[in-house]
Amino acid sequence: MKKFNENKIIKNITRLFNFKSNFKFTDDLLLLKGIGDDSAYWKDTNYAYCTSTDSLVENVHFKLDYFSAIDIGKKSIAVNLSDIAAMGATPLGMLINLGITKKQDERWIDDFYKGVYELSNSYNSPLIGGDLVYSPHLFISVTCFGYRKLDQNSNTEIFLDRSKSNEDDILYVTGFLGDSRAGLDILNSDIYHTPYKTHEQKLIQSHIYKKPRLEVGLKLIENGITNCIDISDGLLIDSERLAVESEISININQKSLPISENLKLAFPDNYLNYALIGGEDYELLFSAPKSMNSLLLDVFEDLNIKLSQIGEIRKGQSEIFLDNELTDVKGWDHFQNQL
Amino acid sequence: MKKFNENKIIKNITRLFNFKSNFKFTDDLLLLKGIGDDSAYWKDTNYAYCTSTDSLVENVHFKLDYFSAIDIGKKSIAVNLSDIAAMGATPLGMLINLGITKKQDERWIDDFYKGVYELSNSYNSPLIGGDLVYSPHLFISVTCFGYRKLDQNSNTEIFLDRSKSNEDDILYVTGFLGDSRAGLDILNSDIYHTPYKTHEQKLIQSHIYKKPRLEVGLKLIENGITNCIDISDGLLIDSERLAVESEISININQKSLPISENLKLAFPDNYLNYALIGGEDYELLFSAPKSMNSLLLDVFEDLNIKLSQIGEIRKGQSEIFLDNELTDVKGWDHFQNQL
To answer: Other C-beta atoms within 10 Å of B92: how many?
Structure first.
C-alpha cells in the first residue's frame, strides 16, 4: 500500500504556484491569501470575500449505513460553513458538485438537497450553483463563499487568520471535544449493538449533526479577536497549525479540556485521547489577550455557547506542550490512514 | 439500468431553493444570478464576481489511457475557465479538489498540478486553494472565479448572459465545430490504430488541448455584446438553452457551419452530426445586431480567431430550425448516457 505524504505534496503545490500575498489584479482588487490556508480571501474597495472547499467521499468520510441522504446533505454544508465560521465571515452562498452512482435514485437526490436546503436556509447561505455528474463512487464537493463589509474606520482584521495568535494570549475552545469522533467509532464498531444507550446515542448525534459556529466567528471579529482555526482534524494537530502559522508555541492544560459526561461514560479510559486527537469536532480554537477574558465570557454567555480556557500562548518555535511537557503531535490524518 | 432525468432533478432543486434574483445580502451586496445558470454572479459597489464549478470523473469524462496527468490537469482548468469566458469575466483564481486513488503516485499528482499550473499561469488565474482526498475512484472538482470592475458610466452588461439574445440578431460561433468529439471517438474506437494519420492526430489534439476563449468573452462585453454561452454540450442543445433563456427562436444555416478539413476527411458521411451535436467544443456562441457585424469581423481579425455567422435569431418560443426546418434537439447528454 502506497503512503502519501500530504504535507510534502501540498508544499510542492505551493512552491509550484509560488503564491505571493498581496497579488494585485487591479489597483483596488487584491488577493490577500491564496493556497496553503483554510480559506483564500481577496478584497476590493468595500468588501472582502473568502472561499473554501471540501470533498466528502463515501466510505472515506462517511458511510451510507448510518448517514441518510438528508443527513449527508446537511453534513456536507456544515463542514464547509465551519471554514467560513473560522474566518469570521458571513455566508454568501455555496456550490455543490454531486457525483452520484447507480445506487442513488431520484428520491435519494431529492432528500440530499432537502438536507442541503435545511442548512442553507438556517444560515442564509443560498445554493447558487453546482454540477451533477455520474460517478462509479459517490462523492460530494462543496465550495462556500463568505463576505465581510469593510469598515474604513475600524481597526479590526479583515478576516480571522491562523497566523495572528500572539504570545501571552489565553487559548480558548468552543463546545465539547471528542464527542463526534467517539460517536463515529461507536457507529463503526461491532461491539455496540442497537438499541444504543442514551449517552452513546448523544455521541452519535454529535457526529451526525454538526453546527457550524458562524455566530461565534462573527462575534470574535467584531470584538477585536485576530485569529481562529476550526479543529476538524483534532485539537493537537490544529493547535500545531495555529502555532506554525503564528510562529508561537502553545501549552494545553489537560484538566481544562471540555469533556462531556457522555464521552467519559462511553470511554472512561481514553476520553482524553478523543479530546486531543479525535478530530471531527468543528469547534473553533482561538487566542486572545488576558485583558479580553471577561468580555469574552460575557459574549459567550449571550451566545449561550460553552467557552473553555484550555491553555496559553508562549514564545517559541511551534512547540505544543501538554501540561508543560513537550509533546509529539499526532492526529488522525485521513489521508495517511486511507492510502 | 436506471434513467435519471437531469432536467427534472435540476427543476426540483431550483424550486426547493426558490431562488430569487436580486437577493440582497446588504444594501450594496446583491446576488444577481443563482442556481440554474452557467455561472452564478453577485455585485457590490465597484466589482461584480462570477463563479462556476465542474467535476470530471475518470472513465465518465476522461480516460487515463489517453490523458496524461499533465493533460488532465490542463483540461480540468480549461473546461472551467470556459464558463468564465462565456461570462465575459477576467479570471480571479480557482480551487481544485482532487480525489485520488491508490493508482496515482506522487509523480502523477505533481504532474497533474504542473498541467494546472501551465493554464493557471497563461490565464493569470492563480490556484488559491482546494482539497486533496483519497477516493476509490479518481475525480476532479474545479471551481473558478471571475471578476469585472464596474464602470458606472458605461451601459454595457455586468456579465454576458444567456438570457439576453435578441430577435433579428445574427448568430455567431467561434472556431471549428465537431473536431473535439471526433477526436474523442477516434481515441475510443477500436477501428483506429496508432500511428494515427495526420488529420486524425489533429482531431485528437483538439480534444486533449482545449483553449478557453477568455479573450473573446472580454472583447464581446467591451464591445456591447449582451449574450453568450459556451457550447460544451453541443451546438443544438446549447442553442436551445440560449433560445429558452432568451425567449426567442434560432435558425441555423448548415452550410455556414465551420467544419474543418480534418473532420471532413475523417468523417465524410457524418461531419455535420459532429458539428451539430458532438459537444466537447468549448467554443462560444452568441448573437449580435446586424449593425455590429463589421465591428465584430474587425475584432476577431485582431484576435486572430475564426468567427462564423451561422444563423439568425427569430421571434418564437425556443424553437430551433435547421435551414428553416423545425428540428427536434438532441445532444449527447453525459448524464442520460451514463446511468
So the answer is: 26
Contact A178, A259 (CB under 8 A): yes
The answer to the question of residue A219 being in a domain is yes
Q: φ and ψ at B155, to 5 degrees? A: -105, 25
Residue B129: its chain A contacts at CB < 8 A? 34-35, 37, 39-40, 51-53
Please, which residues bridge with residue A287 across strands?
A: A171
Query: End of a domain among B114, B149, B184?
Result: B149
Residue A15 forms part of a structural domain: no
User: To probe the interface with A, which of B39, B79, B135 has the most A CB atoms within 10 Å?
Assistant: B135
- Inside any domain, residue B5: no
Residue B263 in any domain: the answer is yes
How close is the nearest chain B Cα to the Cα of A105, in Å? Answer: 8
ipTM (interface pTM): 0.91
Q: How far apart are CA B177 and CA B198, in angstroms?
A: 18
DSSP B45: S
Contact indicator for A109, A68 with CB cutoff of 8 Å: no
Chain A residues within 8 A of B55 when measuring between CB atoms = 97, 99, 131, 133, 135, 139, 141
Question: B121 and B213 share a domain?
Answer: no
Helices (H) and strands (E) in chain B, counts: 11, 14
If asked whether residues A145 and A276 sit together in one domain, one would say: no
Q: Which domain holds residue B192?
A: 170-331
Angle value at C-alpha B61, between B56 and B66, nearest 5 degrees: 110
Of the candidates A48, A138, A41, which has an alpha carbon nearest to the alpha carbon of residue A97?
A: A138
d(CA B39, CA B41): 6
Nearest CA in chain B to A140: B141
C-alpha cell at A96: 455543490
Residue A10 sits at the vertex; the CA angle it makes with A5 and A16, to the nearest 5 degrees, is: 130
**A242 and A280 housed in the same domain:** yes
For cell 482555526, what's the residue? A229
For A96, nearest residue in chain B (alpha carbons): B53
In angstroms, the CA B180 to CA B281 distance is 6
CB nearest B17 (choices: A1, A95, A126): A126
pLDDT along chain A (339 residues), means of 10: 65 74 84 81 95 95 94 95 95 96 94 94 92 96 96 86 95 97 90 83 93 96 95 92 95 98 96 92 96 97 97 96 89 40
- Burial (0-12, 13-18, 19+ Cβ within 10 Å), A120: buried
